[in-house]
Amino acid sequence: MSCDAEEILTRVFGYAAFRNQQKTIIQHVADGGDALVLMPTGSGKSLCYQIPALLRPGTAIVVSPLIALMHNQVSILKEAGVAAEYLNSSLDAASARAVEQALRAGALHLLYVAPERLITPRFLELLDGLYATKQLALFAIDEAHCVSQWGHDFRPEYLQLSILPERYPHIPRIALTATADRPTRDEIIKQLHLDAARCFVSSFDRPNIHYSILEKAKPRQQLLSFLFQQQLSRSAGIVYCHSRLRTEKTAAWLQQHGILALPYHAGLSTEIRAEHLQRFLREDGLIMVATIAFGMGIDKPDVRFVAHIDLPRSIESYYQETGRAGRDGLAAKAWMVWGAGDVVQQRRRIDLSEGAAGMDYETYRRLSHNRLNALVGLAETISCRRQQLLAYFGETAAPCGNCDNCAAPPQTWDATEAARKALSCIYRTGQRYGAGYLIDVLRGELTDKVRDRGHERLTTFGIGGELDKKRWQMIFRQLIAQDFVSVDERYNALTLTPSARPLLRGETHFLVRLPPEKQERPKRLRKGGTLEYSIPDDTAGALFERLRAWRADTAKTRNVPAYVIFHDTTLREIAAARPTSLEALGHIAGIGERKREAYGKQLLEVVAAYVAAYGINQS
What we know:
The chain is of the alpha/beta class. The chain has 27 helices and 17 strands. The protein is 44% helix and 12% strand.
């Protein structure tokens, strides 16, 4: 192919310049090199293999773990005029044969397949034929973290992709992921035999995402407050819950308050899950309430928020899940509530787990607890959340100014003395009781249970009367969260961990963040049970809304998600520039040659009608 990477970027994809390391990665792979690419969601990972696929002779094979993701990627490429197809179980036999025939004929630039299909004898035979005729351009392994047995996205079929370099030597491979800490990164390299690959690690920072983490009180009510106070109740978003039941109840709760929300979890039928996913991808302003069964490969760019009403499993999971917001680069929110019960549940899950293959149980348990502790540390931190989040991935940063701690630094309290009292009380009562009972002893409340057990005679009885129950609950919660105290799963009793010893001796301090004096409350309810909702007066946004309406109609006609036609960022730029010619339209980011030919005239008509209706002087 005679064109170069920059020309393809502009002509096909409609962008004027590469970002960050894109150009270097593309050139490296186009020249035949292997690569491991760690790049945050929304930063243009796909171009790193799509453009080399157009630069190299033959067909690029893209390994993708989800049917929905394949469909979206292929739809986007076809809209840009690229010859792309997928082979998966959604195709009937005749359609699959037609794709295979196109592959053999050299008519495809990219073919998307699932790892399960790639390793079948039939498909490997197809690849053998391409390899023999020098028509195999490259292998792209998307969502490469699926090879890691640590994550909930683990796919054992990914492990078998290690056959590629042995069977097809000298064919470049590029593995891509948005989420991988150092152990996961090392595992990807080991399992996929990418030891000689060049590693490209971009900044993990997502500066457009605002992070906020709150103490859990009434999570559904808190979620409702967040949605309306941030004017997000009519925006696309994802709410993560830890259980199927909570998912169902939360979706119903939002619906009762006039919010378009659907549940998604593994307990739903395949048909219902597919329907809900399609509605989320194609409709504007729909909120998906889901377990971790939902999310990997979600390519919807205009998700304005991701909320957690339960604690994720690790910082890596939190980063991956919150990273589904703001893929278009516009402002987005990552909001979470959490409490001690979440930590107890996660530690119980770890302790009851069978561990990971190839790793002894104690090592698995220790590393899993360390990952959970790192997430708890993020939730409890009194400093910039983005700093701590990036530090986990080995990246240093200045305070961001775009998280709750930066916007309103939390009050702190040196609770060392209170913590020592609590630990002493746990010890002197025999490490057999829960927080509620221990608080009664500390506050000197002579209940029947305290009297029956003779604990009013202990030296710790009544030594904590200066603090109310709510403050003691916070202290016990944070003692659990910071791993000074563990919970016996059989009796829900609190016991001391080895970390408690230096704290009891006064060798370390116990600083905690003070909760706000009052929890946030929802705005006043209107008749009918919905909250007051107001849309900011934005006259400049009128054209953008007209363009969105045109896009929705066009997407419906073409039976694709709206963002496949154009991203919001492109429509906003059109609304701001109000172009009057096809040439001017060609300078808008995201409008390549094919899209300008297909939609240019219609876009100009929408702009002209708006200008005429409002009497705007275009000069």
